[in-house]
Amino acid sequence: MIAQLKGSLIYKSSNEAVIECGGIGYQVSISLNTSLKLGELGTEATLLTILIPKEDALQLYGFYEAPEREIFKMLISIAGIGPKIALGILSALSTDEFQDLIITGNIFALQKLPGVGKKTAERLVLELKDKITKIETPSAITFSAKLQLIKQEAIAALITLGYSSAIAEKAIRKALEDEKETIPTAEQLIKKSLKFALK
Asked: Which of 15, 95, 123, 198 could pair with 67 as two cysteines, CB 3.0-4.6 Å apart?
């Protein structure tokens, strides 16, 4: 069983990645959220994986974080939800957002997810509510540690866009001045910091 891939990222799209390990390129189906977290082509990438046999092939599914893989496993255990729908759900929501919908029993929001109707949404809540609370999610990371990870990702993105590290760090600091209690996503921070960055 292939549980993890670590190697050079040679292809990436919104739903697929190819990682070269030992001269072999492994094609992996991924969610949009995982795609956004992967680095640039040619950089080292690590994906947690699940290998699922299909009628005519073996398909690898990859995940940037362990909670996403755990939720994927739970989703495909539900009648009527296959890997494709599971990845669609994980592309539409973060793991924290999905867990919140399950814990609060938000059938209305769940049934709007791709491939999920009212009956499936009700089944999701019924079967996953007790299991979902046991998953250790990124929200368990301390505020400062999580913010530091977001800052590092945003600085790296600005440097890739052509800004110097000094200018990137200064722009990030300014963008975070009014972020005292909430943590922006890397995408939000990058967009906001661009207003302060000067080449």
From this structure: 95
